[in-house]
Amino acid sequence: MSTDSRRKDEHLRYAEITNSAQQRQPNDFAGVRLLHQALPEQSLAEVDLSTSLIDGLQIDYPFYIEAMTGGSKKGGVINGQLASLAAKHHLAMATGSMSIIFKDPATKPTFAVVRQQNPDGVIIANLSANASVDQAAAAIDLVKANALEIHLNSAQEVVMPEGAQDYHWLTNIKKLAARFPVIVKEVGFGMTKETIQLLADAGVAGINVSGRGGTNFAAIESLRGKRIGASGDWSPLFDWGQSTVESLLEARSTNHQQATVIASGGVQSPADVVKAGTLGASAVGVAGFFLHHLQTNPDGLDQLITSWRQNIAAMMLLTGCQRFADLANTPFVLNPQLESYVRQRHLTR
Ligand code: FNR
């Protein structure tokens, strides 16, 4: 197995270990309160769960399977399982980073399986921020992707024993965004309003804030480093970054024009999905929590997705919303800690 394929397997294993309740950082969703509308004045049948992931790309449900894997035998198996669930439930799904196919073309089938299992679904290809236009076109072609995710993972790379040293990405992102429907995403450290504004001005179609509170790549890469005997203690970075809630609050103070804001990072419940929508997210990606369920009980994940769909529809009804986008115009209450964050960052609510 190549070093890169082994890294993919270690990500799967260490994500599970570091995502335990004891080790997870707060996702801050508990600090957001939704407001019950005792007079909904609509029927459940009128609730429409579809939403626009990015301009021109409608998805049937507001939550989707976020980028995780591919590039190893195990990753290919998991991608196949996730893709068949995505097909069954009409969920969009992102692949894990496909950069590995350019170093090791033998890994292509571990990504292609996502399209084979889900011929008609919405699939998002994922690449690093220094991918070339040709590489992006090849990755999109391999899975017949409907959109391209470009990940920003500086905090992961600095901890990663074999991580990158150069983080000049914006010029390349502009180039890619001019050619493809690009969603730029973090990998669990969140974004500030300054970053979100730079990305919106770069012309991207979607900005996925992917904040702190779930999968923690500082902890994952630190564990990998220990395994291979790398020196250094990275624990000071284990609570790094903005939570998903903080990042969505940041996004509210930007002029993100045509770009949608997407949430991910620490999403663990249908209420988190609805709260993210209330804070302005057009859709919500779920990675580690679904992976955990898949690895412990695949049938359980199937049932969980069904109940999330029901719960989200009920919560939309009870907040008086017919469409997911309507949530962004409903009132919410923040706990004192988040209220203080809003004040100190000079954010508009
Ligand atoms: C990830 N994530 C990720 N993101 C990305 O853009 N490209 C990738 O290849 C990967 N790989 C990956 C592997 C594993 C095992 C996990 C759990 C996650 C990050 C993911 O898409 C998401 O941004 C973060 O995990 C935060 O969301 P959760 O996990 O807290 O729901």
Q: Could you give the topology of this structure?
A:
Layout: H1 3-18, E1 32-34, E2 51-54, E3 57-59, E4 63-65, H2 73-89, E5 93-97, H3 100-103, H4 109-116, E6 123-128, H5 133-143, E7 147-152, H6 154-159, H7 170-179, E8 182-186, H8 193-201, E9 206-208, H9 217-227, H10 244-251, E10 260-264, H11 270-278, E11 283-286, H12 288-296, H13 298-318, E12 332-334, H14 336-344
Parallel strand pairs: 4-11, 5-6, 6-7, 7-8, 8-9, 9-10, 10-11
Antiparallel strand pairs: 1-12, 2-3
Ligand FNR is lined by residues 11-12, 15, 66-69, 96-97, 126, 149, 151, 185, 187-188, 210, 214-215, 264-267, 286-289, 291.
| Backbone shape | globular
Tell me the number of structural domains: 1
CATH fold-level label: TIM Barrel
Can you list the ligands bound to this structure?
ligand FNR
| Oligomeric state of the chains in view | single chain
Average pLDDT level? 96
The class by helix and strand makeup works out as alpha/beta
Poorly predicted tracts of residues: none
What level of helicity do the residues show? 40-55%
Percentage beta strand: 5-15%
User: In which order are the strands of the major sheet placed?
Assistant: 4-11-10-9-8-7-6-5
CATH class: Alpha Beta
Question: Could you please describe the fold and organization of this structure?
Answer:
- With 349 residues, the protein is of the alpha/beta class.
- It has a single domain, classed as Aldolase class I (TIM Barrel, Alpha-Beta Barrel), CATH 3.20.20.
- Helices cover 42% and strands 14% of the residues.
- The protein has helices at residues 3-18, 73-89, 100-103, 109-116, 133-143, 154-159, 170-179, 193-201, 217-227, 244-251, 270-278, 288-296, 298-318, 336-344; strands at residues 32-34, 51-54, 57-59, 63-65, 93-97, 123-128, 147-152, 182-186, 206-208, 260-264, 283-286, 332-334.
- An eight-stranded parallel sheet has the order 4-11-10-9-8-7-6-5. A two-stranded antiparallel ribbon has the order 1-12. The chain has a two-stranded antiparallel sheet with strand order 2-3.
- Strand 6 (123-128), helix 5 and strand 7 form a beta-alpha-beta unit.
- It is globular, with a radius of gyration of 19 Å.
- The protein starts with a helix and ends in a 5-residue tail after the last helix.
- The mean pLDDT is 96.
- Ligand FNR is lined by residues 11-12, 15, 66-69, 96-97, 126, 149, 151, 185, 187-188, 210, 214-215, 264-267, 286-289, 291.
- Ligand FNR binds next to helix 1, strand 5, strand 7 and helix 12.
